[in-house]
Amino acid sequence: MFEELTLSSESHAGPPMRPPSLHHRTDGPARPAIPAQKRGPSGLHRFNSAPAGSAESALLGCCASPRWARRLAAHRPYPDLTALLAACDEASYDLSPAELAQALAGEPASRLLHGRAPRAAHTALSAAHTAYESRFGHTFVICLDDVRPSEHLDQVLVSIRTRLSHEPDEERSVAADELRRLARGRIVRLVADTGHAGSPSVAV
């Protein structure tokens, strides 16, 4: 229900005026009721009803494994976001080593720093990435959804230094879980009602 808010003044003589409502008419013609605005289909509904090719293409932007994308698209419709995220996790856990390598290879080399950042920061980040990629042969990935933007750089540098001490098998497992978390965050934004698929999750 819509209610009008009126300004009242205690400086006028006489009893206070009763504010207009749906059941109280003041002088003048009655105002027509304001119709409820119709909302378009939800993001999840649009995802569920999209052609298979379009859904798979959008999902590849969340995780660059074709089989992962086909699997999630094939299991539509999803009753809610929770079910979709559960399917995302299951498909991520089932990636073979070759599919994981393919997904990691498809991760964009995003940059945390803008051009005005100190040169020392650019140098430190570039050196850390180079050392990581030299040791493990793929892009460093990390999900920063729960980290404040002002702490992104420090978190990445600390994580790279820590993970450089991992054995390849151990790091492959860590990278796979970070990739899963990245995919979850991207899916949430993909099916958001706003239709905005941008991701604050970062692959760096």
Question: SSE layout and pairings?
Answer:
Blueprint: H1 43-49, H2 52-60, H3 66-74, H4 81-93, H5 97-105, H6 119-136, H7 152-163, H8 168-190
Task: Write a brief structural summary.
The chain is an all-alpha fold and 204 residues long. The chain has helices spanning 43-49, 52-60, 66-74, 81-93, 97-105, 119-136, 152-163, 168-190.
Task: Write up what this structure looks like.
Helices cover 49% and strands 0% of the residues. With 204 residues, it is an all-alpha fold. The chain is globular, with a radius of gyration of 26 Å.
Radius of gyration: 26 Å
Proportion of residues in β-strands: under 5%
Low-pLDDT ranges: 1-26, 34-38, 194-204
Helix and strand run: HHHHHHHH
* Overall average pLDDT: 80
For the largest beta-sheet, the strand count, sense and barrel status come to: none
| Overall number of strands | 0
Structural class: mainly alpha
Mass-distribution shape? globular
DSSP helix count? Answer: 8
What is the CA-CA span between the terminal residues? 49 Å
Helix share bin: 40-55%
